[in-house]
Structures are given as structure tokens and as C-alpha cells.
Amino acid sequence: MESPVGGSRSTSVVVVVVDTGEVYIVVSLSTTIDTQVIYVDPLTGTLCYHGKFGFDVFRSENEALDYLTNGSSSPCKSKVHARAILGYAALGCYGFLLVATKLADSIPDLPGGGSVFTVIESQWIKIPLHTPQPQGRGEIKNVQELAEVDINTMHYFCETRDLTRPFPSRMPVLSPDIEFVWNGWLSLPFKSIGLMQHCVILLQGFVEIRSFGSSGQVEGIVALTARRSRLHPGTRYLARGINSCFSAGNEVECEQLVWVPKKPGESIPFNTYIWRRGSIPMWWGAELKMTAAEAEIYVSDRHPYKGSLQYYQRLCKRYDTRNLDVGIGENQNEKAFVPIVCVNLLRNGEGKSERILVHHFEESLNHIKSTGKLPYTRIHLVNYDWHTRIKLQGEQQTIEEVWKLLKAPTLAIGISEGDYLPSRMRLKDCRGEIIYNDDFEGTFCLRSHQNGVLRFNCADSLDRTNAASYFGSVQVFVEQCQRLQISLDNDLAHEYQSVDNDDGYTAPLPPGWEKQSDAETGKTYYIDHNTGTTISNHPCPDKPWKRFDMTFDMFKRSTILSPVCQLADLFLLAGDIHATLYTGSKAMHSHILNIFNEEAGKFSQFSAAQNVKITLQRRYKNAVVDSSRQRQLEMFLGIRLFKHLPSVQIQPLHVLSRSSGFFLKPVSSMFETSDGGDSLLSFKRKDQIWNACIYGLQVCPEDAAVVELFIYLGEPCHVCQLLLTVSHGADDSTYPSTVDVRTGRSLDGLRLVVEGAIIPRCGNGTNLLIPLSGLISADDMTVTGAGAHLPDQVTSLSLLYDFEELEGDLDFLTRIVAVTFYPAASGTPMTLGEVEILGVSLPWNGVFANKGRGARLIELATKYQKETNPSFSGSDTNPFTSTSLSNDAVAASAKQGSANKGVDLLTGGDLLSETVSHPVTENADSKGGDHKSSTSQDSRPLENGSQKYLNCLISLAGPRMERSLNFLEAMTLEIERLRLNLSAAERDRALLSIGTDAANVNPNFLIDGSYMGRLSKVASTLALLGQTALEDKLNGAIGLEKIEDDVIDFWNISSIGESCSGGMCEVCVNTKETLSASSIVSYKEGSDSVFKCSECHKKACRVCCAGGGAFLLQNHPTDGTNYIGLSSQGTQVDRTTNRSMTLDSVVCKKCCHEIILDALVLDYVRVLISSRRRARADSAAYKALDDVIGSSFLDGPSDRSHHDGNHQAVNFLKQLLSGEESLAEFPFASFLHPVETAMDSAPFLSLLTPLDCGLWNSYWKAPPNTTSVEFVIVLGTLSDVKGVILLVSPCGYSEADTPIVQITASKKLDREEKSCLGKWDVQALISSSPEYYGPEKSGGDDMLPRHIKFTFANPVRCRIVQITLSLRLEQPGSSSVNSDKDINLSCEGTSSPQETRSASSRGAMQCGPCLHAKRIVIAGSPVREEMGNGSSENADQTSYINRLNQAPQLSRFKVPVESERLMDHDLVLEQHLSPSSPFLAGFQLDAFNTIKPRITHSPSSDADIWDMSVTFLEDRHISPAVLYIKVSAIQEGNGSSMVTIAEYRLPETKPGTPI
User: Which domains does the chain have, with CATH numbers?
Assistant: First the structure.
């Protein structure tokens, strides 16, 4: 609920930690009238919000706090009060919430409303998470560094206005220019839950105001705003010059806003002036030497001006206002071009280190002009050696010269002028651009616009830049005041105040003004058409910009200096902020800004000593702490995360077993419980044994000693992980030893996904994580030989990629998880701790509201449905290509992943350290949700794809398989297999059909082990470089319409049989002669394009060129050493600024090392594998969407496409519920069993979707001849149900298909708990109410849909509602009912409805009536918790607990590890036992784990790195890695042969945990 613009309350944030340790964020925004409560999941750190009133939406903050603390009966552990949320990130073992605890009201009231706040004090709130996800030491250190980022006094925000663009912004606050948004990554968690406005848009820089006037009256207000670009973040020596994002280091946009304060309801005149400051936009850097006074400056010797053109294009696009000005003024001239004036303040004398930059700056502008790509932009360079001029002629004369240099460009660029009109009723009076949006009530009318920009720079854009820009801004400031009729002239300025002065100048009228004369009196007056007012005096009596022509002394004598000194104060503060952000110290040489102050001499004396101190501070920080600060900046911005946080999940999994999950059946217990065991699903402190209820079976037969839990999830999802919390007494054997897991959409469809997973014995509170894949076909496991973890004949693991990857089903509608525990010893009781299910759910609320990710999912699903061809060849819809052997297919597939070859690595880290993977997206379908379709052997498309694969194999190995494949040929064959979209099982099945062993074509077995390790390392490096290039490419596109595509593909992998095109190609690597005749399956000449190799400078065709990734690798060492950039002289320099790689360079295959070409092939295979996984995940998402809302919804527009569709549906629902709540809306509610549905029907799940979802003429109906249907609906939470509402289908009822409705309810699935609520016959209602007959007639939009209510006499507390619809078997009209009342036919003999879960048939019906319905709505109110505290402990329970806490008699002894060694890529631990040792029954070791990185390959597309998939399902969860341990021993009598004793599938837990 939004409040009117400019709400009366201030934003309040309260972070509450309740007694269980759970964390809630209570937010009351100034722009709304309600309060939201955001839950931080204590396991994964995911933010949870459902938007349910009374659950996480409340009327006030106090009401929300009372709810969380049970009215103070449950006190909070802690509370943190804050003023704003700045960001959040869940990083491994901690969640970090950044809040602003103290703000400064930097601009209390902008013209048009809105306050700008500077963050004075902030706090990182560290939230412990209980995830067992392992992290490396480097990651943990980096996470701690992120929490030390200092943002105080250097960041600001506005809740209601967009500050990322020049004032006044045309865009709303929630659509910022992301170039200037510094917490974009940290705000993503709030965006993902639909609360984007709850995290403010944070800008880095400076904002402050000063008011000025005379005689105690405030005549004007000046605001100085400086927003720092995030496109080239970094510290002084790590972010200089331009980077691959086409942005300069220390780039800042400054804005000087002046306005006249007015009374409420009056128009507010204002004007603005904008300029830029930043380092020189070309590739250069500096080598810092501790022994030298100055750093040695160098310019890249390879394409130093690459990217400079795009930099100026971005400026031109931002400041081009030629078409915005309307010619309404007397002297309004048409603007033909956009001026960009660069004021260069570098030292240019002989022997000066900066001289080289001056030369190259001039050359870079000449280069840009020569391209002709900025035809309407005029870039002018003004060189002015600031330090030399100050030293030679003093400060005053230097200032005068600067004014002369700036006069012409300043006048050409101008300023923006306008008025804020508090009412939009006067829009017709505005002459100029009109700006208005929902962020403010009135309208801005801009009479004129600044066109172009001035840009100041020195070497670092610091001290000189700040001073020079100030003296230019002073002139503009005086002119701004003059145009607002605020005179800064003192009594000595009379010679400049004549309208007609000595030089004959006549002041022009401002835009929108007109001069008129009275016909009778002849007096002149002036009309302001902008405001409709008339004055007698000239609005601008003085010559504009007159002070540009003054000497310094004239300026000082003729100007009221108090406002000028106040402006200088703002520049002093801003300069210190910019210097601190860039160098870690305040600005130097700032005393000159106080030159208009009467005590300027004192400032000068103080500045000399201060400069020495600051110089030493800068040198220390640049040399010692810059690298750490660089990492902090990058992590804060969310860039290079694959390097700094390689294993941290960008989108954490959701815990779907909380908070509304529950057990469908009570858990067997030795002691009576009130909740049936549901507290096993609630969060508890992990270090406490849950012994309030000790679960276990009574005396049971040995073969029945199990505990089975049926968990109903709070939302449908794809299940990824099972997390168990170990809980036992002193005897750890009471916890289960193994577990089975089954998953499914319904009870009828549970399928085994994990069998016999080991649960090692470990201490209380230990988290054990068991990865879950979807159902894997037994046939697939057999044909791939993956039934055993490590077959005896296999001597090497697949280091390159998983050649025999098994593909499990992906289903985003999984709702039930059955967990079966087996005891360590049969017949003994078991103790259980918390059970949690983790997974990924689709954005259903966004789907139904058509917003955010949900809208994107619908868009992609619609596109997918239109593009899908049912007759497509292959086992599934191919996400890559339909003609895999053609050259076009290669390009189509590879172009999706073509990445920017330029790379800007901003830190000095080692890229050959542990490397990483990132999930990618392919919007193609491989039927991941229906595995059977992909493994069916009788499918003709499958045979077609398999045959093509075999043809490829025969072309390489010969018709009789007489030739053995080498590594490259085997990899090429795998590429063709993946392009054909064949799974590993389908490939192996095809190979078996011709009697070929899959091991013969496994690339992992065809290269030497040492080479495999090197190749894997090089490919991992390529993955990092590719991700870096893509990240820079995406950031570089900000502010630009389009970035030119790369000349050549990132991998450029040729198809089988593709050869050199000849002709002009001088490389000729693969010619027809070099290929055997049998290897040419389909021949296609290469592209006619010819490229020039950047190494040998020979011409090469596309086939003979290496992929673009080769150029990245070619310039980086691959021997495991650190990457160190070298200057042309061979000295060590900073690698960040020297990395001026061209984006369109090409390397031929002859100039590439063999390992680089192999790495490109390996990386491409990994990309194709990941793309197949993505396609399967997306396909499963589209299938889930179709199963809920139906394909007809995607074919045509729904009712919510109307502007007021959603609002109308909400009103309908309110009227239907009569003050109650809807308890059975999908996704929180669902059906427990599937319902048979007719072929042309809407999905049965659509019965529970919101009223405005789907086409209004769609409805559910049962198959023909079905006489009875049973709906078992599980509500979102335990509720007091008061009635059921059945919405009639658009087709209406007839006497033949009028149903009999029977309703029962229960809390669990126990048959004994079911209670019959009534049986209703609605035939009489139909017969006496003609509006229920036949198709629905079109009526007014406010007409309620036809419906029937079944009201209960008393509310029924339940979780499961069973509704049975039955057709009447007798002839119509045989009984009568009163249509004015609900008719209850009693439930005698029907207390237990028929047990069939699906629709039942009772013989053929000739006339064909069927059961049908539009929606099912259940009305009532949710119950927060069960009444009562449960049963208290009795004597037996206490005695049993005490017995569990007694230490058992154990015979355990420790055997030391004799040696550790690597064997065949396995870690082998050897222990030696003496003959006198007792028999062994087990062993203990400290848990270890592998860090699973996100990034394992280069990007496969140019998708946003923060939003890689519509599902957010990472590769690691689609195909989870499982850690196995095999125990072998040499036993007496067996010689020296090893005997395998056992093999264990280990769960994941924190390293070092004894298990």
C-alpha cells in the first residue's frame, strides 16, 4: 500500500533477532502506510517474503513487532534500529545486512519534493548461517574484507527521486542509470522477492547544499552533487586510464543546482550546470617505485586508444540535448553538434613525466576524429599546465587565464533552466520540455538545456581537477544566480549593470519571455509566458557571463563573496571525498579554493605542511593496502565474484520445508506429542538435542524397523538437497544409519532418488547435507556402467569432464518428499533432529501478477512454445542446432557464447588459482522434466539423432572402426554428440548397437595424465578470462546503444570435414589434402571473410583462425606462474592498466600453442554440457508452467492483460470471501493427488490459481464418462475453514451435469481424523436459477462470476480438505432442493469417501455429461499455531531421556595414518594394523570436502551474469557432485591383493567434523 507522495513518516528499519536466533527485518517505508516483515532463512540466508497480510504485512511497526514477539511474551535477543537498508548478501556461513544507522539530511527538500540523505554511520549486521557449504580460506578472508568496506560520509541516496541522472530526471526512482548505482548487486535479494524499493539506490560521491542571501533573507540555494561512475572502480594505481568497460578511472559527474525557495503552491525556478572529471580515457598506467619521488608513467604499446571512441560516444549520448530545446526565445539558435571540451591540466614541460600523456591525449582525439563515427560531436582539447602556470605567474593570473580559456566552451555548452510547477493543471502554459512521473506531484518545465559537457582532468583527476573545475563553476554560479534574478553584485559593480552599456549590448530575453509596449502610455513591460506573469523591468538587465571578462581583482571587488566562499566550501568537502575514495587520503593543494576568503593567507601556510603529510599517506596506502581496497570495491559492486568468492552461490537455495511445510502423517513416537512431529521441520539451535519428543518405533519386526516421514513442502519446487541435523543422547548409535529419499508431485507419484545413503555417526548438532538428483533411469545407469561408483576396470577419473554424466529428472512441481530412516541396529529406537528440504521454486507470484522474473518466464515460455517443432529430430528439442554437421550450425551454436575478448583484470591476483564456474542459460528444451522421453529406445527421432552420431564416428574411425581415435577426434565427436542433443546414455546405447565400447571414444582416456592436468588448468584459466571478458562487455554496454559483435567466435570450433577455404588464406592449416576421405561427412567451404593474424600478420580464413579465447590465453602464461604485465621495456608494471587487449584481434592456429587449441575445444565441450543442463532446467520450468496455467494461456492474452484486470479480480475475491481469507491458492496450496483431466481441459492445478490468471473462457473438466472426481486439497497452513466456493465454468450447468458435492476435512492423512462437513445437491439450485444454465452471458465488468457457496455450520480447523464431485445417477428432476439455501444431504455412510485418488468411471454414458469447474476457493482464516503447549513430560519419558544421556560402553581405539598419497587422482590414506588388533567394525575420520566452484567454463551467452537463468538453478544442483569413499584392506590368506570392504556415499558437512 502506497502513501501519497511525500508521506509524513520517516523510513524505519528494525532488525530483530528472536529467542530462537532467527532474524527478521521489519521495514516501514516513508512511501507506504504499512509495514513489511522479511524473514532471513537461518540455513541459506535467503530472504523470504510472501506479501500476506497478518503474516508478513502489518498495519504498523508495533503490530509487526508484537507478532514476532507474541506480544512481548517471547522477548527479542536483540534489536538494531536503522534508517535505511543499503544491501544484503548471503555469503557462505554468514548473511551480511548493510544498514544506515545515522543519516545527514544533505538536501532536505529538492524542488518537487524529496530528501537526499548522506550515510553518516552504517553497520554490517552479521547473521550466522547454518549451511554446511564449505569455503576456502581465501573466500573466508575476502568475505571478512567485504564486511569492512567503509561507506560512511561518502555515499548518499534519495528514496523518492532519481539522482543518477541530471536534475530533473525524466525517469522514476526505481529505473536508475546503473552506471552510478553502487549497491546494484547488494539490492538483488530484495528485487527477487518483489521489494526492490526496500533497498535504497546508493550513489557514491558527495552531495551538500548551502543557502545564501542578504538581510537575513534566503534568496537562493545551491546544491553540489557529485556521482562517481562504477564502471571503472578502483584505487589510484589500479584504476587509471580507460578499461574494457570504456570508462576512465576516477570518473565523476558533477552537478551544480541553484534554485529559489518559494512558498508551498508557488512555482520554483531553478537552473543546473553539469561537468565531468576523470583520468585520461586511454590505456595508460603508472609503475609505483618506493625509491622514486614520482611513479613512472607509461602508455600501452598495443592499441592505446582502443575503447576511447566508445567513451566519448557514451558522453555524447548522455549530454546530447539538441532535439530537446524548443525555439521559444528571441535568440534561440539551433544546435548543430554536441561539444565535448576536455580541459587537460597535466604538466607539459620538457622532462616532465606527464608529457607523454599530453602527446597521446592529442593523438587519441585525432584517432577518434579520423574514424568519422562521431559526426555530430565536436571534441576539443584545451591543454593548460596548471602547476607550471601557478609557479611562474601566481594564482590570480592563473585563474584569469583559466577564465579566458573556459569562456567560449562554457557559453557554447550553456546551462539548463526551468521551473517546477506544483500543479499539472498549467501544463498548457509550459513552453519547453515537460517532465513528470509518479515520483512527484507537479511538473517540471525545462525552457533550455545544457548541450554538451566540460571535462576536467589531471593525472588522477584529484587536486588540480578540483581547483580548476571550481573556478569554472564560480563563473557559472554567478550567472545562474543572475538568471534567477539573484544579484551577487555589490556597490562597486555599477559599471556592469546597464541594459544599454558602452559597447551597445542589449540583454537578450530568456526563453519564453516577450517584450511588449503599452499602446497608451508607451511604457515597456515584459511577459513571462512560462508562468503567465508580467513585470515592468527587464528580467536580465546585465550582460550575461560578464564576469568572464573581468580580472581577478575586478571579480573580487564587484561580487558579493559570501555565496562564492560557500561554494568553495562545498568544493573543498567534495575534493576530500573524491581524494579519499581514490587514494585513501584527503585532497592536496586545496588552499587556492579559499582565495576569495579574507584569511586566504592562513590557509596557504597550513596547506604546505598538510600536503607533505598527505603525500606520505598516499604513498603508504597505494603500496600496502590498495589491493585489499580493490577487492573490497569489486565485491561490493558484485564484479569478479567468480574470482573472489568462487564457490558462493549467487542465488541461495530455498528451504521449502519451512515455514508452512508439515508432515502428512504423524511421526511414530514413543511419547505422545501435540503436533504430530511437525516441530522436526521448524528451526532450532543446532547444538541442542531435540529430546522433548524422542521418536522411534516400538518393538517391531527386524524387517520393519524404519521411520518414514512424508513431508509436504510449503511451495512446489525442484528438490536439490536434504539437510539432516544429528540429534542423539550420549550414544550416537540411536541416530539412523542410512536413509532413502523419494520425491514426487503427489503421494501417488513418489519416486526413489536416493537409496541407502550413509549417515555417519557424529556429534549433536552436526549438519549433514545429502545432494539429491532427479530420478535416474535404471536403464541409463546400466548402459553407462554407472551403477557402481568406481568400476574395477576404470583406472582414471574424468578430470576434463564427466563423460558418463547421468541425467536425472527435473521437476519444479515436486511437492512431497518421503524420507525413510533405517536404524543402526534393528529393533532399537531412533532419535531424530531437524529435517530440512532445500530446492529451487519458480516465481509463481510473479507469473500470476505478470511482474519481474515471472513475466520473463512467461515471455520465454511463449517464445519456446512458438519455436518448438514437434517433428524435430533428436531425442529432445535440440538447444543447439538442427543440422549439426554444417558450418552454419557451428556458428549459430558458438555465437551464443561469443564473449568480448578485451579483459580488464582489476587486481593483481593469480588467475591460475582455484578456478570456477558460472551457470548459464539456453532457452531450449530437452524435456528435463520427463526423463522417460529422452531414454525411450523406440522413438524415431532418437534413432535419427543416434544414427547421425554413428555416421560421425564412422567418418572418423572408418566403416569397420579400424582406426583408433586420438584426443582431438574424440573431443570433436563429443561436440557433435552434444550438438545433436544426445545424452551420454543415448550415446552409449548407440555405440552398443554397433558393438563399440564407449571407453574407446572417451577423451579422458586418450591423453597422458600429466598433460590432462595442464590442460585442465589452462581451460580453467580460459573460463576465468571468458567470464571477465563478458562481465566487462556487459558493463561496457551501459550507456551505449550497442556494442559491435566480435569479429570471430570465442571458440571457432570447426565441424567434422570442414576445411580451409583456400583462396587468399596464407595459413592453410586444415586443407582437403590433410583430411582423410573417410573423415569428410559434409563439406562446406569456409567463410569468404579473411582475417589478419595479430602474431604472424598472415591472412587466414575463418577455419584457420583460432577462437577469440585463444587471444586471451596467448597473452597469458600457462605454466602456473602469476600473471605479471610487462611494459615494452621489460620492467614490471601494474597488469591492470597495461591490459589494453584489442577486442577484434585474431590469432591463427599456426601461431597458437597446441594446449591452447585443446583448451578451446575442452572449454567448448563444457559449455555445451552446461547449455544442455540449462536447456533441461528451462524445459522443466516451461513444463511446470504449462501444467499449472496451460498452453492456452501462452497462446492468447489473458484477462489480466487489461489494465484493471488484477484490481478487478481482487475486488471479486473480496466479495466472494465476505471478509474471510482465501486459503487454497496455488502455489501455497495444492492437490495431494493427481486428478484425471480431459484432453481439451485446462490443467487441474488451474482450479487453485488466482482469479485473474489464465483465459476467462478456459476451465477444468473431467474426461468423458467420468462420474466421480475427488479433489484432496492441502491448504497453505493450518486454518479454520468456514466454507467452500465453487466457481461455475463458463459453459454453465445443465440438469445432466449438476454435481453432488461432498466435503470432508482433516489435519493429517489419518483416516480416523477425517470429519464429514456435509453433502450438497445443487440440482434444485440450478433448476430454479436460470443464470446458472448454459454459457455465461457477457455482462458488466463489475458482475461477480457465477458461483456456489457451501458454508459450514461451524469453522473446522484442518489442513486437508477433500471435495468429491459426483454426477447424479438417477434421472434429472427426481429430487428437489431449495435454491435459496445450502442443502446438506447428510453424511451417513459417507464418512470415508472412496479411496480412489483419480476420477472413476461407472460405465459408458451415451449423452456425455461431464464434471467441470472454473475455480475452487476455500474461505476461512489461518491459524498461527496450535492451541496448547502439548503434553508435559511423564516419568517414563524422563527416565528414557536419562537413559539416552548415559554414556554407552564402546570398544574404540585409534590407529594412526601411516601415509597419505595421491593415486589415480584419488586421495589414499594407509593405516597398518597389528595382528593382535581386534576385529574392525568401522572407522572415524575428520570430514573433508571439495569446494565446488561456480565457474567451470566460459560464458555460453551474453546473458546478465547476475540473472543467468529463469530458474536460478545452478549446474551444481542440476548434476550434483557426490563424494565417495572406498575402504580396502589386505586380508590374511589373500596374498597382496586388495579386498574392497565397503564403499560409502558421504554426505557433505563442514571440514574437520569428526565422522
Answer: 1-201 (no CATH), 654-847 (2.60.120.260), 1010-1158 (no CATH), 1203-1422 (2.60.120.260)
Maximum distance among all Cα pairs of the chain, rounded to whole angstroms: 132
Question: What residues contact 1230, with CB distance under 8 A and at least 6 apart?
Answer: 716, 815, 1245, 1248, 1273, 1274
The pLDDT tens digits for 743-788 are 999 998 999 999 989 999 888 888 899 999 888 888 888 887 765 4
Q: Which three cell numbers stand for residue 932?
A: 522417460
Judge whether residue 473 has pLDDT over 90.
yes
* CA 1456/CA 383 separation, integer angstroms: 75
**Length, in residues, of the chain:** 1555
d(CA 977, CA 987): 7
**Structure confidence at residue 1207 (pLDDT):** 66
Is there a cis peptide before residue 168, judged by omega within 30 degrees of 0?
Answer: yes
SS3 assignment for 254-311: EEEEEECCCCCCCCEEEEEEEEEECCCCCCEEEECCCCCCCCEEEECCCCCCCCHHHH
Q: For residues 802 and 987, give the distance between their C-alpha atoms in angstroms, rounded to a whole number.
A: 14
Distance of CA 480 to the CA centre of its chain: 43
Q: Average of pLDDT values for 284-288?
A: 83
d(CA 153, CA 823): 59
Please tell me whether the peptide bond between 1227 and the residue prior to it is cis, using omega within 30 degrees of 0: yes
Record the cell numbers describing residue 1090, joined without a space.
Answer: 579473411
Give the CA dihedral 285, 289, 295, 298, nearest 10 degrees.
-40
Strands 203-214 and 155-158: antiparallel
Query: What does the DSSP 8-state code read for residue 784?
Result: H
Distances (CA, A) of 66 to 61, 74, 80, 1240, 1530: 9, 10, 16, 50, 66
Angle between the 308-319 and 355-371 helix axes, to the nearest 10 degrees? 70
**Angstrom distance (rounded) from CA 401 to CA 403:** 5
What pLDDT score does 965 carry? 93
Residue the block writes with cell 565485491 = 635
CA distances in angstroms from 432 to 445, 450, 1419, listed in the order given: 6, 13, 55
The interaxial angle of helices 600-624 and 626-637, nearest 10 deg, is: 80
| pLDDT value, residue 1448 | 65
Q: Are strands 1260-1261 and 1412-1413 parallel, antiparallel or unpaired?
A: antiparallel
Tell me 536's DSSP state: S
Predicted TM-score (pTM) of the model is 0.86
1066: nearest Cα among 1030, 1095, 1028: 1095
Nearest partner of 540 among 514, 517, 510, judged by Cα: 510
How buried is residue 1446: exposed, middle or buried, by Cβ count under 10 Å (0-12/13-18/19+)? exposed
User: How far apart are alpha carbons 1255 and 1196 in whole angstroms?
Assistant: 8
Span 1479-1509, pLDDT tens digits: 777 888 888 767 777 888 888 876 655 555 6
Q: Which three cell numbers stand for residue 46?
A: 535467503
In whole angstroms, what is the distance from residue 1443 CA to residue 200 CA? 55
Cα angle for residues 1501, 138, 1140 (degrees, 5° grid): 50
Residue 478 φ then ψ, to 5° = -65, -40
Q: What's the DSSP call for residue 1132?
A: B
**Chain position carrying cell 543572475:** 482
* C-alpha cell at position 76: 527479542
> Contacts from 964-972 at CB under 8 Å and sequence distance 24+?
964/1000, 965/1000, 965/1001, 965/1006, 966/1006, 967/1003, 967/1006, 967/1007, 967/1158, 968/1158, 968/1161, 970/1001, 970/1002, 970/1003, 970/1006, 971/1003, 971/1158, 971/1161, 971/1162, 971/1165, 972/1053, 972/1056, 972/1161
pLDDT by residue (tens digit) across 1138-1170? 454 445 678 899 999 999 999 999 999 999 999
**Cell match 541442542: residue?**
688
